[in-house]
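Notebook, p. 212. Picked up where the previous page left off. The plan for this session was modest: take the two constructs that came back from the sequencing core last week, fold each one, and keep the raw output in the notebook itself so nobody has to go hunting through shared drives later. Recording the first one now, exactly as returned: residue sequence, then the structure token string.
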Amino acid sequence: MNDNETRLAAAWPCKTRELHNHHFDSTVWNDFVFRDDDIIVGTYAKSGTTWTQQIVGQILSDGSPEVDVASTSPWVDLRVPPKPEKLAAIEAQAHRRFLKTHLPVDALVYSPRAKYIYVARDGRDVVWSMHNHHANANALWYAALNDTPGRVGPAIEPPQGTVRDYFLDWMARDGHPFWPFWDNVRSWWAIRDLPNLLLLHFEDLKADLPGEARRIAAFLGVEVAEDRWPAILEHSSFAWMKAHAAQAAPLGGVFWDGGAETFINKGTNGRWRDTLTAEDCAAYEATARRELGEECAAWLAHGSRARPMAAA
């Protein structure tokens, strides 16, 4: 091993903790057997996860309209179904695997054999999408998360109050009722220079989907014929995904009132601007700078168009 290889080996993240709650069982990764071409899509949640999975699925399939990311790209650290069943199903996959995680890096087994794509989004946009996801969840969703064996910690309960109330509680209790936000973003930003990690941002995907899709393909080492790009991009659009939402939503959307089209929501940002006060936004931005540092906070807010966040 040469000096560069030695330095790189020392830089690979190590798992230092487990995360358990109504959603998580991070121990699934401890028994996961990696393949050399595995792809892991990581996000906090409601940050563009399914969209990125769809783009990856389209790139790998040359734009096939039949790609069903809900079944082909499972959430590894979700605690249902149980670990043995989930690992067996993933091991049986014969295609190039692309999987998802919502864990911070220090609760994940990070392998040099895989390629990782981390997608970020302004926390205010995350919460607006999360509120839609949570407020429209039905009894089946709560039963799967709360009543199946293996839950650690309190149950997740229906949201109370307005979306602003929901945001303020999420801020005050760092991600409640889901999981902590800031250490998730911070942990992935800290390893952004690793050669097998690509950082994406929701704003950049919206601003230039063709360019970002080509970045993803290049990162994954996939050569796409030029005549396949129109189909890939069409099937990666929000309009197409909304019209074919059952192929993206878990179990075809049975966990949400309104079905799969509720799971694939608006794909828009900035809806909080008409609801949050100037003081609410100043508090969020000050927290982002404190938790993430100026550079990361600016990137989280704006993506590649990052500019310093105004001081509160």
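Okay, moving on. Second construct, recorded in the same format:
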Amino acid sequence: MSMFQIFNISGSAVSANSQRLNVVASNLANVDTVAGPDGSVYKARQVVFQTHLVGARDGMTPPDAAAAGVKVTNITEDNTPGRRVHDPKHPKADAQGYVTYSNVNSVEEMVNMIAASRSYQNNVEVMNTAKVLLQKTLQLGQ
């Protein structure tokens, strides 16, 4: 594997975790949303990652063909029922006096955000380290 493939691998992880952070931000923004006029409520979304080959070119054979990176293959909705709170005075309450809120768990989303943020930071650090190593290698030739 060449040093340049490190940028492809870490770059794919940075891109995937950027999408993950956007989904987490959307989930956190909708923690306390209630069902709309059609009765549907916001459902928590999760990012699905998949390993894929990065840096492959025609005519290359494994193991030189590519390295494994990551990509987002899907964003799924959590179908667990939303939180129901008895509040008969709420304008969105149903006939029994219950208000349906989104199924987003703020604690789980904060943990997910911290994990995605650290993964993002670690991959940026990998790219910075690879850049420094390549610069040092170039300086050896001077």
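Notes on construct two before I forget. DSSP finds two helices and four strands in the chain.
Flagging for discussion at group meeting.
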